[in-house]
Amino acid sequence: MSAGRFATVVLPLAALALLGAAPKPDGSEQAVQKIVASPGFKAAVADLDRTHDRMVADIVTLTEIPAPPFKEAAKGRAVMAMMKAEGLADVEMDPEGNVMGLRRGTGPAGGKLVAFAAHQDTVFPEGTVTKVRREGTRLYAPGVGDDTRSLAVMLAYIRALDAAKIQTRSDILFVADVGEEGPGDLRGMRYLFGKGKYKDRIQAFFSMDGLNPAGITYAAVGSRRYRVSFHGPGGHSYGAFGIVNPMAAMAHAVDELYEVKVPAHPKTTYSASVVSGGVSVNSIPADVTLEVDMRSESAEELAKLDARFLAILKDAEAHENAARSTGVGKITVTPKLIGERPTGSTSPEAPIVRTVAAAARAAGYTPQLDASSTDANIPISLGIPAVTIGSGGGGGRAHSLDEWIDVAKPESLRGMTVGLAALLATAGV
Amino acid sequence: MSAGRFATVVLPLAALALLGAAPKPDGSEQAVQKIVASPGFKAAVADLDRTHDRMVADIVTLTEIPAPPFKEAAKGRAVMAMMKAEGLADVEMDPEGNVMGLRRGTGPAGGKLVAFAAHQDTVFPEGTVTKVRREGTRLYAPGVGDDTRSLAVMLAYIRALDAAKIQTRSDILFVADVGEEGPGDLRGMRYLFGKGKYKDRIQAFFSMDGLNPAGITYAAVGSRRYRVSFHGPGGHSYGAFGIVNPMAAMAHAVDELYEVKVPAHPKTTYSASVVSGGVSVNSIPADVTLEVDMRSESAEELAKLDARFLAILKDAEAHENAARSTGVGKITVTPKLIGERPTGSTSPEAPIVRTVAAAARAAGYTPQLDASSTDANIPISLGIPAVTIGSGGGGGRAHSLDEWIDVAKPESLRGMTVGLAALLATAGV
After folding, report:
1. Which of A329, A403, B60, B95 has the most CB atoms within 10 Å of its CB?
2. Contact status of B8 with chain A (Cβ, < 8 Å)
């Protein structure tokens, strides 16, 4: 997941309802209740229960195949083989690297469909050890929860639907997509909705990302990301002392950025995330590179922060060129936009939101609406009903090397029922 | 060379003399004049002339054996074989990696000796292509001038002394040492003067480093180098926004450091040289590492700067822990000293300095005194008369991938006579 679905604005649905007129019933609640009471759904859940160990084994297998941004292919091939093994039709890897398989419904071939996605990529760079360490019901590994558990849960759904012989009205497109994290900049989703062969058929979209089964991401947090190059002449640390240093310009910019006040609501954030530069301790560096991430629930606040940041860069450049000698060269500061995600929102009263909320309640959870930056940003920006939901189970420390999940069956299984019920209610049975 | 012998304080000897009373003559001038006029010296120079192509071939051979810091062994073995081939006695590699051979004088065995050194290591990391490209009289390759030419010149001296049948009074210890550049932190010299078998016998020391035959490094620029670890909890750029960021602490420290005013005389410098940290644009980093180099001609100024820098680090740590939430962890800033070179000076009136000056003048150069950070720092700090001199010839861009030297014979040879005359005058003939 891209935006901390665990820690953003959270509104219980009831509170949302209190903000305005209570939403009119639209049948979502009843449809979900009918589904979860059905023998077919119960049979599917029984299969999830029976094959839970298999699902956990799939998490381990897939986690241990590294999938850094732009290097998802090995994991993609493994998922493709698993989708085929589950009997999915038309399994393929698209030119961007998304792996997809279609589960036909009873409707006409080539009609509208529901897409259900989990992402292959992790935030972790090449070389990160992704070996899973198990302690009791806990699995520790980078990427184990974000988003490998979701991939395994998706495979378990395919298996359970077949075991329970459930036929949906719409086709369901299961997608293991690429490019969700940072530098990927939602490239998988951009392809799926911009160029992919199913692009005009998707009428509803679920991203399963992260764990919280009560969380419903209905709003897309927008982001702008920059890679900033600070360049100067460089030289000997002693012999050339007194010349401008791109490191000092970078430091000045970051120091100023961290003085910027942003609103808590709409939530707006920034992060100086990655830095590198210099070749040896006895050389003034010629190049320093900084990566910065800025996000907001509000397009207006994001634009404001973006403008402020660009002004800070100009100021840092001018400051360094004034502070030290430019006799052998000046500092230049060049920001390059490396990521831009649209801001937007599925209506909190849209059927897809109500359906997930009903499914969460049916499993005993109190649904919570949140805003985040996820694969759903792309369909949301296109006006396609889309939400991001969780795969269940406990866990923590996503995006850190000590990431972990808890696969203790009762809670894991209960969480898994939410996505399945919401998917079936949306696809129709 | 470690400290830009090309670009530090340069005082013509005449100017130095003007600063106080003219130094009393001590016989250095006459001794050098007598040597350069002697048939033996002329025969040696004739040999340097005759075997100049061989010296150039040695430069190429040795440059093309990479010698990154701590990885000098292959080059060391090649130099050892060449020293043996030149008939030097007691050729050996010491446990640190220095390669040495003794040329016996007429004095008693085991008595005082003169050491003459050039360093094996280059600043270039493993994997750097060191293939020499020749264009006319120019040789291009990383490390070709710093300090490989000096190694070849040292071998040529050994050959010429034998060809001219010159006997010195003192033994001469020829040393191809390790660890002169950055991270090596003068480890070769520390061993030679701290533990080596000749450590109590060295009464005078020459380092031949770089090209300028008129330059005499008599003062040791001291340095302190730190690798600073900025550590924090890390987390999701959006979800965990508001927590402390080690990048912000690093930036605050660098920004403050670059406000520090240091004296131009005694020359005192700092450089924030290398930085790295962060794993992905959408994560608040857990670790940022910064390397800083500080130098001064004055031990007192260096200590002052060092204390100021350490205070800045403490301040940056406190500032960041106060500016943002420490709920999931605090910022810790941990400096590690990775380099420390002593400050000091051989008296500009010491015989060894006057001798080199006289040898430079005898070759038609105007001697220039400078301060730098070189292998001579170690003997200087121990009170042993020591200077660093150049090997002659033209060149430029030391410490860069486009380093080059010009081996056009007339100028190359003229430069080589300076070191030979100074060595003979110091060892006595």
Report:
1. A403
2. yes
Q: Is A363 on the interface with B (CB under 8 A)?
A: no
> Parallel, antiparallel, or unpaired for β B202-208 and B386-389?
parallel
Residue B369 vs residues A327, B6, B118, B214, B218: alpha-carbon distances, Å: 25, 11, 19, 8, 7
Contact between chains at B238 and A2 (C-beta distance less than 8 A): yes
Query: In this structure, which amino acid lies at residue B31?
Result: A
Q: How many CB atoms lie within 10 A of CB A124?
A: 25
Please tell me what DSSP assigns to residue B183. Answer: G
On the question of pLDDT at B16 being above 80, the answer is: no
Rounded CA-CA distance B291/A64 in Å is 34
User: Among A77-81, A219-223, B396-400, which range has the highest average pLDDT?
Assistant: A77-81
Say what the pTM is: 0.75
Cβ-defined contact of A295 to B240 (cutoff 8 Å): no
pLDDT over 80 (residue A416): yes
User: Has residue B20 got a pLDDT over 60?
Assistant: no
Report the gap between the CA of B86 and the closest CA in chain A (Å): 35
A354: exposed, middle or buried (Cβ count in 10 Å: 0-12, 13-18, 19+): buried
At which residue do the structure tokens 């690093």 appear? B250
Q: What is the mean pLDDT of residues A204-218?
A: 97
The whole-number average pLDDT for the span A240-255 is 97
A294, A224 contact by CB (below 8 A): yes
Question: Which residue in chain B is spatially nearest to A396 when comparing CA positions?
Answer: B235
SS3 B95: coil
Q: Which residue has the tokens 């050039």?
A: B118
Interface pTM (ipTM) of the complex?
0.77
Nearest to B186, CA basis, from B30, B407, B375, B411: B375
pLDDT digits (tens, 9 = 90+) for A277-313: 998 888 899 999 999 999 999 989 999 999 999 999 9
Q: What is the largest CA-CA distance in chain A?
A: 81
Query: Is the dihedral angle over the CA atoms A210, A215, A216, A222 positive or is it negative?
Result: negative
Residue B340 corresponds to which tokens in the numbers above? Answer: 């420390």
Q: What is the Cα–Cα distance from B429 to B427, expressed in whole angstroms?
A: 7
* Partners of residue B238 in chain A, C-beta under 8 Å: 2-4, 8, 221, 223, 267, 269, 271, 293, 295, 372-373
Rounded to whole angstroms, the Cα distance separating A209 from A211 reads: 7
Partners of B222 in the β-ladder: B296
- CA atoms of B366 and B368, how far apart (whole Å): 6
**For B225-236, what is each residue's pLDDT tens digit?**
999 999 999 998
Please check whether residue B280 touches A, CB under 8 A: yes
Which residues touch B342 (CB under 8 Å, ≥6 apart)?
B220, B222, B299, B377, B378, B380, B381
Residues sharing a CB contact under 8 Å with residue A156, sequence separation 6 or more, in sequence order = A48, A51, A52, A54, A55, A58, A416
| Helical H segments across B286-407, by residue range | 299-323, 351-362, 377-381
CB B190 within 8 A of CB B84: no
In this prediction, residues A378-382 reach a mean pLDDT of 94
Peptide bond into B66 cis (omega under 30): no
Go through B138-164 and write b for each residue having 16 or more CB atoms within 10 A of its CB, e for each that does not: ebbbbbbbbbbbbbbbbbbbbbbbeeb
Distance CA A240, CA A325 (A): 10
Distance between CA atoms of residues A193 and A208, nearest Å: 17
The Cα A27–Cα A138 span in angstroms is 39
The stretch A9-32 carries a mean pLDDT of 62
